[in-house]
Amino acid sequence: MNRVRVILGQRLRRDWLQLTLWIGSTVLLAFAGFAGVAEAYGTEQDRSGILAAVMANPVILLFRGLPSGTDSSAFVVFLLFPWLAIMAAFMSAFLAVRHTRGDEEAGRVELVDATPAGRWTPTAATLVHGTLANVVLGVLVAAAFLAGGAAAQGSWLVGTATAVVGLVFLGLGMLSAQLMRTSRGANSLTVWVLVATFVVSGIGNALGTPSDDLTRMESSWLTWTSAFGWAENTRAFDENLWWPVLLCVAAFVVLTAAALALQSVRDLGESIVAERLGRASARAGLASTTALVLRLSAPSTIGWMVGGLLTGALSTSLGGVVDQIGGENPAIAEVLTSLAAEGDLEQAVVVVFFTMAGLLAACAAVQTVARARQEEAHGTAEQVLATPVHRVRWLLGFVGVGFVAIVLTCSAALGGAALGGAALGGAALGGAALGAAAGDNAAKLVEAAAVATAGQVVAATVFLVLTALVFTVAPRLTIPLGWALVVAAIMLGLFGPLLGVSESLTDLSPFAVAPELDGDTVDVRGLWWLVLTICVGGAASVVFMRRRELAAAG
């Protein structure tokens, strides 16, 4: 136990800043949610109107929680809980991989194994470390709800649900670290399972059954295949169900047990999924550093493209869900009619989905540039730069491939939107007039998607050059600060209006000011300052890269 305490103390000194940022931003979102709801949706009538609109357009449930009544606290949970849970999940997953496969790659685990601590002490320390981080997060989230005036039982249930979702992905991260040979592969596997289960939970909610008064939604069976869905179905401040929490705890136990079992049968440095052997000699296409970066980045880029394709397809194809639910519930049909009179709701939904596509593209860009930092820290960059390759040319290879990843991800989203639009038009071919109207509507949605695609390419490129700039100025901050910029921008863009943030501050998010289609015209919005940021950031990166030396891991 004393040995675990020693390693745990070292981990806490190493991770205190990252954990403070993750936990602090999550708790701040929970605390600020009450003030935002009180200001924007202060009356029960306001909240009922929003929930009715959600039932009429359940696509919104892909980005929000499970509606559970008009109580102000339950409404806050509906708006914010999925994002509290996903931040806990990311924190836990990265922590697990960093201190298992990451430390193994860096040689730290081998050094500890050679001491009386043995092989299992670092693993035990990782479990204790991740569990404590989630407990602290859960307690502070509950305290934030209590400080906002929420009921005690519901507050503690929200905090507990947030923490146990984090524990599930702590276990998943530890399992992925046993399966994959590199920390990059383990993180990729964990993140894709995380994103997939988050989306599955949202789709399951969107396909659920609304109540007659349009204030509650019963999840479909699909939601129950996701840890996020289990946590949402605790229905804090409504039914206050504790038993779904046990499902998350059981999943954590099973995943952790599987990770420990696999660790006991593999050698240090090896993995369950064998690493594919490389060719004896490189192809001619790998003769340049840019080609090498492209080859290394191809698997992750393909993954982001798949995410973009699915996001784009959902943006235009889920309109049929709205029509179906409206036909089954007359109250929803009335809401649909009133919404149609107020503006083009479907076009707005496309913009929201393509904001998420822009987020995926920005993640692809940050991951590509972060790979430059990983190559530098692992010493492989030094081998490349010992050749006639100039350091600026080497960096521009990562930036160029990052931009290609942005374009491919957003293009995949546009292709998905076109496929979804074709499906939407083809679903109404029963009558000539109806089919023509559906076809015109689908074409309009695809046009909105095309404009949003161009806008999100520009927005994502901002994060590409900013991450490159951080890499040249403060290389050790490349990975944490690059991802923090993306998280901050999406929080401002999606939650700024809800939290009562001023419009000028919200507009600092590139996602919030990317060009989009407004009716029949293109609103350029913040295009020019985005382009200016890209030009200045790119030029500064080149200048600073020419002047700095390689930085070791730290």
Protein described:
With 554 residues, the chain is mainly alpha-helical. The protein folds into two domains: 272 residues, no CATH class; 269 residues, no CATH class. The chain contains 19 helices and four strands. The chain has a two-stranded antiparallel ribbon. Helix 1 runs parallel beside helix 5, helix 2 crosses helix 12 and helix 3 runs antiparallel to helix 5. The protein starts with a helix and ends in a 7-residue tail after the last helix. About 3% of the residues have low confidence.
Cα Rg: 24 Å
* Dominant shape: globular
Helix amount, in percent?
Answer: over 70%
Biggest sheet record: 2 strands, antiparallel
Average of pLDDT? 82
Approximately what portion of the residues adopt beta-strand conformation?
A: under 5%
Low-confidence stretches: 335-343, 428-435
Q: Order of strands across the biggest sheet? A: 1-2
Counting structural domains, the number is 2
Cα distance spanning the termini? 28 Å
Order of helices and strands: HHHHHHHEEHHHHHHHHHHHEEH
| Number of DSSP strand runs | 4
Structural class: mainly alpha
User: Can you count the helices?
Assistant: 19
